[in-house]
Fold this protein.
Amino acid sequence: MKNLAIVTLWVGITILTAPATIAADLALKAGLNLVSLTKVPASGLTSYGLLDVFGPNLLAVSRINASLQHVETTTFQDGAAGAEFPMSIDQAYFVEMAAESDIELSGIQASITVDLEPGVNLIGLNPVSPSFHAFDLLELIGPPGTVVSIQRFDKNSGRYVSAMQTAEGIAGNNFKILAGEGYLVSVMQSVTDIKAPFGFILRASENYLITKEVLSNGGGSSSNANFNLQSVIGQSSPSGKMTSSSFQLNGGFLAEPISQ
């Protein structure tokens, strides 16, 4: 067990020293995209200011005003024209681009909740668990009679795929829900405080499992039948050595593997 923990740590260090490729916040295709903001927009940002965010390839941005069940559109032919609306992290938008563009957003990430109005809503969820899918979102929104369908726009095929709630149960395409995408959600009644679970990424091997990426300041614990790790962060123990009754880690970060 000691050797396994040390080897796992050393592999992680090796990966960190390799050149890293950072993905864009939004990867937009030429034509129509349904996108949501993954970071809180600047205070006061409206659709008229989106050329500074999405760049010169931006042709138009639209939103669904769910309260009015009306589509509002800003176009960018010779400057911004048409409806002007505020940008929000809990909504999603139809974004039309003249060419492919990778967009880096400024701002901070935040965990959000979403409210739904009767009819069609265009929403985004952020952050989202890697295992969260359309069928999960249908169940999260409510039972039959509450939610009708969720639609995702497939940028590669140019077609919508749907998951739906029927009298017989959930049916359709169980697509993955992703941060940065927009989804058309049709509901029969108002629903408040929708929040996707995001959890932690799972790390595992044959005898080793962590379900928490970061423990709280001041320490915490992670355990299963073969592994127990306590007080990882913010401890007074000497740097380079962390121990518990059934686990010992020597070396810490940036240390050579230790043979034992």
Notes: DSSP finds three helices and 20 strands in the chain. The chain has three domains: 26-103, 114-194, 203-250.
